[in-house]
Write a structure and sequence with these properties.
Length: about 290
């Protein structure tokens, strides 16, 4: 999928989605919602927040912060955010830690994680890799692209911060351990935007990204399973053929109430689900 999402981001992104209150609304009547977490889910919530604020005529402001799935889950569990964003499931350890918060998850879309390479690597012949080859690259056992049919060039291995949901899903498939160590790594990145930029700037990199972040310079390779190659397409995700798929979720401390409930319902509405599609993901509701 050829799509670039440009978001001004660092480890944390602050996006204040508030419009000036019309004359009929006093300042103290403006209701605030805080959302924190996954940079994969961020485009959905950002766009939904913009529309929701307009529908409410400025009577609500929504602050959206990035930081990763782990930060989103923790923020919801500790009551520092009304909604957490995550691109992975809550772990048993997190469930235990935030047991008193009664954490609930709500899927708003579906996505997959691609093994991505720099355009020059793909053009030189690396179109598919097996689970074992990817694992050996991250372990430092395979260090040159020529070992997997590519150019004679040292592999620049890019990993993500350990609390990132995209990393959890990717490493669970490759190593059956979401916290696997990767001694072959040369660079650790945070957000999808940051990793996309690093891979695009290189002529020999490999990394992991949500489908929505692939583009002409950052290309997803097929996953080779036996004699078959499963291409990184949304069609394969819909058909449950692609092996590294996941739900995109909102994390809430208990049953949402009031304006938070309204915002969540908006994301799940037909209008909200169209935002999911426009963000490059698969909606959970087709109508």
């Amino acid at each position: 999928m050829k799509k670039t999402i440009s978001i001004i981001s660092c480890v944390a992104v602050l996006l204040l989605l508030a419009v000036g209150s019309p004359s009929g609304h006093a300042k103290e009547q403006v209701t605030r919602i805080t959302v924190v977490g996954s940079t994969t889910v961020l485009p959905i919530v950002t766009r939904a927040a913009e529309l929701f604020v307009k529908h409410k005529n400025g009577a609500v402001s929504i602050t959206v912060n990035a930081g990763g799935s782990g930060v989103g889950i923790q923020s919801a569990g500790q009551g520092r955010a009304d909604i957490g964003m995550a691109s992975r499931e809550i772990t048993p350890r997190e469930r235990k830690r935030f047991k008193s918060s009664g954490l609930q998850t709500l899927a708003v879309g579906r996505d997959a994680v691609a093994c991505v390479v720099s355009r020059k690597v793909y053009s030189a012949g690396v179109r598919a890799l097996s689970k074992e080859q990817i694992g050996d690259i991250y372990l430092g056992k395979i260090k040159n692209w020529k070992e997997v049919g590519g150019p004679d060039r040292e592999i620049v291995v890019i990993d993500k911060e350990r609390h990132r949901g995209t990393r959890h899903v990717f490493m669970k498939y490759i190593f059956e351990n979401e916290n696997a160590r990767t001694p072959g790594t040369r660079l650790v990145t945070g957000s999808n935007n940051e990793e996309q930029t690093k891979i695009a700037q290189s002529d020999s990199a490999i990394g992991m990204l949500s489908f929505a972040w692939m583009n002409d310079d950052v290309v997803g390779v097929g996953i080779r399973e036996g004699s078959a190659v499963i291409e990184p397409t949304l069609e394969n995700v819909r058909a449950n053929r692609y092996p590294i798929a996941r739900d995109l979720i909102l994390v809430l401390a208990g049953e949402p109430q009031g304006i938070v409930r309204e915002f969540v319902d908006f994301i799940l509405s037909p209008e909200g689900q169209q935002i999911v599609v426009k963000s490059g993901y698969i909606p959970v509701h087709s109508n």
